[in-house]
């Protein structure tokens, strides 16, 4: 269930972010590190916007930029449950985080692979842990398949993926769900609390020229890097999808945990197509109970855009001033 409205949780929520950085994943990580309401216990990586090797290096570099080198990073899935590998580096550049130069990582990847690192976090936490997935959800599905008894240690799963309407990687499928629909089917069928943050919501989170100007106006390196990320990301969206400004998808999942009242939610049944000739990876969101199936997800519908950007930009500014 979606938490009650309010100005953030009563205490920091233990959280793992599973990601494929990615310019928007990078902003999501900065938001999570900066937020006093999130206790970021680990970051795990997956293929998606780039290879898992590049995603892991990018995660290490982002956390180095954020001054959060104490957070362990576990390398995860190199491909989907079905063994295929679909990459989105046509959007984020060959290495997944093209644009401004970043310092080399200030720490090493964990000796534990992603799923084992998540398992360790679940075992060590004194309360259930939230899993946020901003790339293909392969690692989370693998965890659920391997460690059924640990499900009680998971507070909820929030994923960026799918859409109530159209897709982006194909006309009907969003990239993350197309990359591993079998994994998403495992998560949706898990019986755990699940929140879906799809394109219909994230396409409201546009990094307009005004938003980027607020980043550039910050008197520190972190804000300037974020603005340059948006410049590269925005050029891809103009060329591929004719967007005037890029939608910054992944921080919406973190915002959903910090300030769920910024989003209007609908509880309903969600399925993902795994076999369609033209529709593989498409999410079927039954907003009006046409299938008469029990709801299995809270689906994000509309975003308080001003509140969202105030939260994200405030976090980046606070983080940068503390460096």
Helix proportion range? 25-40%
- SSE string: EHEHEHHEHEHHEHHHHEEEH
- Return the structural class: alpha/beta
> Which regions contain 5 or more consecutive residues with pLDDT less than 50?
none
CATH superfamily: Ribonucleoside hydrolase-like
How many individual β-strands?
Answer: 9
How many domains? The number is 1
Supply Rg.
18 Å
Explain the overall architecture.
It is a single chain. This protein has one domain (13-321): Inosine-uridine Nucleoside N-ribohydrolase, Chain A (Alpha-Beta Complex). The termini are far apart. Strand 2, helix 2 (52-65) and strand 3 form a beta-alpha-beta unit. The protein is 37% helix and 17% strand. With 323 residues, it is of the alpha/beta class. It has a nine-stranded mixed β-sheet, with helices on both faces.
What are the defining features of this structure?
single chain, about 325 residues, alpha/beta, Inosine-uridine Nucleoside N-ribohydrolase, Chain A, 12 helices, 9 strands, about 15% strand, globular
Layout of secondary structure:
Elements: E1 13-19, H1 23-34, E2 38-45, H2 52-65, E3 73-75, H3 89-92, H4 114-124, E4 129-133, H5 138-146, E5 154-160, H6 175-179, H7 181-188, E6 194-197, H8 199-202, H9 209-216, H10 221-241, H11 251-258, E7 263-272, E8 283-286, E9 297-303, H12 305-321
Parallel strand pairs: 1-2, 1-4, 2-3, 4-5, 5-6, 6-9
Antiparallel strand pairs: 7-8, 7-9
Helix pairs in contact: 1-2, 1-10, 1-11, 1-12, 4-5, 5-7, 9-10, 10-12
């Amino acid at each position: 269930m979606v938490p009650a409205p309010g100005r953030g949780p009563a205490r920091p929520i233990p959280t793992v972010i599973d990601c494929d950085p990615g310019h928007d994943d990078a902003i999501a990580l900065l938001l999570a590190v900066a937020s006093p309401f999130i206790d970021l216990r680990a970051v795990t990586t997956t293929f998606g916007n780039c290879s898992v090797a590049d995603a892991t290096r990018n995660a290490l570099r982002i956390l180095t930029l954020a001054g959060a080198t104490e957070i362990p990073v576990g390398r995860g899935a190199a491909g989907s449950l079905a063994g295929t590998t679909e990459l989105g580096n046509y959007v984020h550049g060959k290495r997944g985080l093209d644009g401004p130069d970043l310092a080399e990582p200030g720490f090493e990847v964990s000796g534990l692979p992603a799923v084992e690192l998540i398992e360790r976090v679940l075992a060590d936490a004194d309360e259930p842990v939230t899993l946020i997935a901003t790339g293909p959800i392969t690692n989370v599905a693998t965890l659920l398949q391997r460690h059924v008894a640990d499900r009680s240690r998971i507070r909820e799963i929030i994923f960026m993926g799918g859409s109530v309407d159209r897709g982006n990687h194909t006309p009907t499928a969003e990239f993350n769900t197309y990359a591993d629909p079998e994994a998403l089917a495992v998560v949706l069928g898990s019986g755990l609390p699940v929140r879906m943050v799809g394109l219909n919501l994230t396409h409201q989170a546009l990094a307009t020229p005004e938003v980027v100007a607020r980043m550039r106006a910050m008197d520190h390196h972190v804000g300037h890097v974020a603005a340059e990320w948006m410049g590269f990301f925005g050029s891809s969206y103009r060329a591929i999808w004719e967007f005037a400004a890029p939608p910054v998808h992944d921080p919406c999942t973190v915002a959903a945990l910090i300030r769920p009242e910024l989003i209007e939610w609908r509880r309903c049944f969600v399925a993902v197509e795994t076999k369609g000739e033209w529709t593989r990876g498409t999410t079927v969101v039954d907003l009006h109970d046409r299938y008469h199936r029990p709801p299995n997800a809270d689906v994000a519908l509309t975003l308080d855009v001003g509140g969202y950007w105030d939260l994200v930009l405030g976090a980046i500014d606070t983080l940068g001033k503390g460096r």
